[in-house]
Design a protein that fits this description.
single chain, 526 residues, alpha/beta, 10-stranded antiparallel sheet, 6-stranded parallel sheet
């Protein structure tokens, strides 16, 4: 009997998890705890901090320590977390080199005859080398990256004028090169990638990252086993997997965002490039997972009903214990969001400045990170809201934030589901959201646990905020309703749907499917 394995296909993991990464790791926990299946997390992006990130996520309870994480570059570099660390000494120097510590850090600048020739970046906590930049005549020409064990991991050669990467060489932990990547001018995509043996000889050549990923997937997918591949990053994996389709490889893409490029008519607008290959033929995947019923309806109306569509919303690992409304800070409003254009945080800030005109003691705290932080900070200053609206750092565990607030806001143009809306409601914090595709309307019952406002209708949005903040009894009632209606976010509900999906893909009874069809124990039904 073939052994059967389940893999979740992602790009990367980081200290500040994206919504997709968070959802994938939570799903992994549900599979292990509710279905008795231990999936493997698969990533393809080079990340020389991945060893530490794994440990960090386990320590913070985000990643189950029994769930393996494999990475394409670590595979070829033969990296593993239990290698002994190398004792990296301070930078060796020629007699005419001058070392200068960087105040407030453990970094070191190196000068020769008064000119900067090296910048050594070290981690603040442990002093481990992260990377070393090399300079020539004031321009950066090379960067050496080190892994968490102190091994030289990658050397990048840069164009002296543009700082563009021209060539990268990746190294095994024994110091031998294993991959070279060559970049054409004015391109961030490598067009020639070569795998090297221990003597430096070329063993394989690829025209780009996609071909390398295809080759790697062929290596890790054994022909003697059956795989259920749940794809969280389709633009990276879906096309390469089409090259290795077999009866033993079951492909299950998850649609994590709107399937169209724009907010226009979902039945005619251009397709989101992340999913174009999927929707070119919806019958190819073994199943397609969507997060909301409304998106499923829109997709079926446009692409037909022949695809094997399943709706499996995000859920909570465990529903929070309700807290007394009196513990929440009166008139404190929050939002958790990337600081990016599609989130419309400029609208949120502008609207809240008008709320403060009517409710002077109201405050808004926006937690997140992103490229627009500077612009948003400037807008807050221009509106004179420095004492009322605050931009806060990203937080990995926002439970205390939700439980300290009386209301949260969402002003996005679009979502596939909106994890923050689910989390806020599960913590008894009502939500006011634009009525967008997709997600909020399947969680918010207007007037009960929050409000839905037509997208862009700022006057109504402001009225809803003011009405709640000036009516504490209504606010408390909505908080209670949020707790009660959040029962549908329980992990057991997701487990049932995944069991049905996986069980339906294969008609053969196997060890894997016997686990799926086994009833959940009473202790796991929550």
């Amino acid at each position: 009997m073939r052994e059967e394995k389940c893999m979740f296909l992602n790009i990367d993991l980081s200290y500040k998890l994206t919504g997709i990464e968070r959802a994938s790791l939570l799903r992994a926990k549900i599979f292990r705890e509710q279905l008795g299946i231990t999936p493997t997390i698969v990533t393809t992006k080079y990340n020389n901090r991945l060893i530490h990130i794994r440990k960090y996520l386990v320590q913070h309870g985000v990643l189950d320590e029994e769930i393996p994480v494999i990475n394409m570059y670590e595979y070829f570099q033969e990296t593993c977390s239990n290698l002994p660390k190398r004792n990296i000494q301070p930078t060796l120097k020629q007699s005419d080199w001058k070392l200068e510590s960087v105040p407030g850090t453990r970094d070191v600048r190196v000068y020769q005859n008064g000119r900067l020739i090296m910048y050594e970046k070290r981690t603040q906590k442990t002093g481990e080398i992260h990377y070393i930049n090399f300079f020539h005549k004031g321009s950066k020409i090379r960067r050496d990256g080190y892994d968490c064990n102190g091994n030289l991991s990658v050397i990048q050669l840069l164009d002296q004028d543009t700082q563009q990467v021209l060539m990268e060489t990746y190294y095994r932990t024994d110091g031998t090169p294993c991959i070279t990547k060559h970049y054409p001018k004015k391109s961030k995509q490598a067009t020639c990638i070569m795998l090297l043996d221990c003597q430096g000889g070329v063993t394989h050549r690829f025209d780009g990252e996609s071909e390398l990923i295809t080759y790697w997937l062929q290596l890790i997918l054994s022909r003697t086993e059956t795989y259920y591949l749940i794809i969280d990053k389709n633009r990276v994996y879906y096309k390469p997997l089409q090259q290795i389709i077999s009866e033993q490889v079951h492909i299950i893409p998850v649609i994590h965002s709107r399937h169209t490029k724009t907010q226009g008519d979902v039945h005619t607008a251009g397709i989101n490039f992340n999913y174009a290959d999927i929707f070119a033929d919806v019958t190819k995947p073994d199943s397609i997972v969507l997060l909301t019923e409304k998106q499923k309806q829109d997709i079926q109306k446009r692409f037909g009903t022949k695809g094997n569509f399943h709706v499996i919303p995000h859920v909570m690992e465990k529903l929070p214990v309700p807290v007394s409304f009196s513990r929440r800070k009166a008139k404190k409003v929050i939002a958790l969001s990337r600081f990016s254009e599609e989130k419309n945080l400029d609208q949120m800030i502008t609207m809240f400045s008008r709320v403060v005109q009517q409710v002077p003691e109201a405050t808004l705290e926006i937690y997140g990170s992103g490229s627009l932080k500077g612009e948003l900070t400037k807008l807050i200053d221009q509106l004179g809201m420095n004492g009322r609206i605050f931009l806060k750092a990203y937080v990995s565990n926002p439970s205390e934030i939700y439980e300290s607030a009386v209301l949260s806001l969402l002003t996005s143009n679009c979502e596939a589901f909106s994890l923050v809306t689910m989390e806020s409601l599960a913590h008894g914090c009502p939500v006011i959201s634009y009525d967008i595709k997709y997600g909020p309307s399947e969680m918010i019952l207007d007037g009960r646990n929050g409000h839905l406002v037509p997208c862009g209708n700022q006057d109504t949005f402001i009225q809803r905020i003011v009405a709640i903040l000036t009516n504490p009894s209504q606010n408390e009632a909505m908080s209670q309703q949020a707790y009660e209606l959040a029962r549908k976010f329980q992990a057991g509900e997701s487990a049932k749907k995944w069991r049905k999906l996986l069980g339906g893909i294969s008609k053969k009874r196997s060890k894997f499917l016997e686990v799926l069809f086994k009833p959940l124990s009473p202790s796991k039904k929550g």
